[in-house]
Write a structure and sequence with these properties.
The chain is of the alpha/beta class. It is 48% helix and 13% strand. Helix 2 packs across helix 14, helix 3 runs parallel beside helix 8 and helix 10 crosses helix 15. It starts with 21 loop residues before the first helix and ends with a helix.
């Protein structure tokens, strides 16, 4: 439809009912305007991704797990609504606090951080984490976990997280409180976009000082991610925030087309939840439409929704909506198929390198 003509759905005079469901609420959002409408349309697009059996990547920037959102991610994995993940190291590291039964509490943002430091309390906005009881305890777990793994051989962060999930399942106090464990169980690859920018890598430093060497194969990693998209009939991303996780998932398009000449076209669908502005030129605020010029998306007019909102508000609504109205999907188990998909992309490239 021509957006310059006076047509479209009538705006309702909204009436709320105590008996309304999450589906009813999303319909209300979708029938309004501004970011409420965008949120409603995003929830419906997420449902469409699932209905069309798209391969869905969840990208998670910042630190969503300290506020307990790892539990939402875990449920989506178990229902087959997330097939692979790109996240920060912080989200993997802090998620393990819950699995290990280490204290994380609600605190305050209106506080004297000098006094918190004296009391050995670490703050993430209004979330409190104990220095010794949580961080140092977690450091010991990570250091012990990787004391004898990954030295003198190349590895990817997906392999790193898979082993973390395997070991947490076997030894953590509460393995049911870890999306990393569920990712291991359902063969969902979890990539850490910048592992060195997290406590996970900091804990490898003690082993490196003992002359144990680590060889992160980041090039294989980006090829694996592109291979997942290349193998998919339809490909989609749900982006929580921006940052490096957002670009890591979206750059699969330019790798396939600009570099490898595969003419893949990028993502079919993307939902972006962000509070970043587009006018500053940063990737976090870059519009999804702009991504078309890079070949990151198939279409700049359809299949994309940006919600300007705090992800801690919008993400649970999207998740509960699809959990309420979509049947569970059979797990794609991409982690077990990574090698196969990698080889397929490699073979096609060498058969026709300039297509």
């Amino acid at each position: 439809m021509d957006p310059h003509q006076f047509h479209g759905k009538d705006i309702p005079h909204i009436k709320l009912d105590p008996k309304m469901t999450i589906e009813d609420l999303v319909d209300v959002f979708a029938s309004t305007g501004f970011n409420g409408r965008q949120l409603g349309e995003a929830a419906k697009l997420y449902a469409k991704m699932i209905e069309e059996d798209a391969t869905i990547c969840l990208t998670v920037s910042g630190a969503m797990t300290p506020v307990g959102f790892g539990g939402i991610i875990k449920t989506l994995i178990e229902r087959g609504f997330v097939d692979w993940i790109v996240t920060t190291g912080a989200n993997v590291y802090h998620e393990d606090h819950f699995a290990s039964g280490l204290p994380v509490k609600q605190g305050s943002f209106d506080v004297d951080d000098m006094k918190l430091f004296e009391n050995e309390i670490v703050r993430i906005r209004d979330v409190y984490i104990k220095f010794e009881e949580t961080l140092v305890a977690e450091d010991k777990i990570i250091q012990k976990m990787f004391a004898d793994d990954f030295q003198d051989k190349s590895f990817t962060t997906a392999e790193f997280c898979n082993l973390l999930g395997k070991r947490s399942k076997a030894s953590a106090k509460h393995p049911e409180k870890s999306f990393v464990v569920s990712a291991y169980e359902y063969d969902v690859p979890v990539y850490i976009s910048t592992i060195k920018d997290s406590s996970l890598a900091l804990n490898l430093a003690v082993h490196r000082l003992e002359n144990k060497k680590y060889d992160l194969d980041f090039v294989r990693e980006i090829i694996e991610q592109a291979a997942i998209v290349y193998d998919s009939k339809k490909s989609a991303i749900l982006e929580l925030g921006g940052g490096v996780p957002k670009n890591t998932a979206q750059q699969t398009g330019p790798l396939l087309d600009q570099i490898l000449k595969r003419n893949d076209g990028g993502q079919n669908y993307i939902i972006q939840i962000t509070d970043a502005r587009p006018d500053t030129g940063g990737l976090s605020g870059a519009t999804l439409q702009e991504g078309k010029s890079w070949g990151k998306i198939q279409d700049s007019h359809e299949g994309i929704v940006t919600v300007y909102a705090d992800a801690t508000i919008a993400f649970p609504i999207l998740a509960l909506y699809v959990l309420s109205n979509q049947k569970s999907r059979k797990p794609k188990r991409l982690y077990k198929r990574i090698g196969e998909m990698y080889d397929k992309l490699s073979d096609d490239y060498f058969k026709n390198p300039t297509k």
